[in-house]
Amino acid sequence: MKRPVQFLGPAEAAGRLGVSAKALRLYEERGLLTPARNPAGWRSYGPDQMRRGGDIVALRALGLSLAQIAGVLEGGSEGLAPALAAHQALLEGRARQLADTIENVRGLRPNLDRGQTPTVEELVQLRDPAAERRVEFELPWPWGGERFTLHGIRPLNYIVGPLGSGKTRLASRLAEVLPSAVFLGLERVKDGRAAAQLQTDSGLRSRVQHAADWLVGDGATVSEALLTLLAGLEAEAPAILIVDMVEHGLDAATQQALAGYLRRRASDDRPLFLLTRSTVILDLESIGPGQCVILCPANHSPPTRVAPYVGAAGYEAVATCLATPEVRARTEGVIAWRPPQRDEFPSAMHP
Fold first, then answer.
1. What is the pLDDT of residues 258-304, one digit of tens each?
2. What CATH code would you report for 133-330?
3. Rounded Cα distance, 183 and 241, in Å
4. For a pLDDT cut of 70, what percent of the chain falls above it?
5. Which of 1, 20, 103, 231 pairs with 12 at a CA distance of 20 to 30 A?
6. What is the pTM of this model?
7. Which of 249, 261, 242, 214 shows the shortest CA–CA distance to 158?
8. CATH ID of 10-61, from 3.20.20.70, 1.10.3720.10, 3.40.50.1110, 1.10.1660.10
9. What's the distance, CA 205 to chain centroid?
């Protein structure tokens, strides 16, 4: 007996494809995917629609915009060259990491044959190339000089903390001590440097346009804030980029698209440190092995790495620092104030 063909509702279809229901609707609006309709008129997705949806999701993973995907599905090749070049660069970066790990294994085996047991650190580095990258320095105010050590810098690192916890000072200090690091502050749109770069650097302008097209395909809205951020992300010079409040000036849909874009482009070659208080940018339920959460506690104890699961030390503190984009919009521009320290008062005020 032939089994009936299964049709799925939008939520279940989106879940199986690993995208949002909004993304499915966007694919429909762009003419890429046409859902069936059940007798009640509701959208439904059968085997043909799911295959088509799977193709779209796979092409998105290659970095293609929806406009480029439309051309590919129709047999065209316009816009494929820059997308494939970017994907090639990403794969080559991963290949270099794998080659380095293989070389480390090759170096340990002769020593093992001679009876020299590798250290635990050497073995851990075979599993995770990022474990080789670390930073250590004295913490600035408000910590008062304690040592801070971060082992195993991940491709994507989130810095979280309540107002006044010192997270921006930590980020600034990281930018000072990490090689070739660049810090993008909240004044990044006003200072005009990104706009000037886009005017003079045609390569950067092309990369930013490609990234913007990709994000628009996921529902983002192009704005000066987004283009400035993309200029920093796509610049070739810095090895490490540190961004203050990455969601600054971006609406909820743009944050959602950006979160996926950041996860896709993150690599060990150029780690990202993102200060955020948005539940969309930092979705604790979707943290992967290439991501790390650093909490700056409210009591000014030293920053600490927090494991992303309920019950882990610091997890609840991280969760309470995050808010939806709507709530973040209401507190945009709010800063913490600290009273002057004793040595900062005018001398006439000293006893």
1. 988 888 777 767 889 999 999 999 988 878 778 899 999 998 899 99
2. 3.40.50.300
3. 6
4. 87
5. 1
6. 0.70
7. 242
8. 1.10.1660.10
9. 21
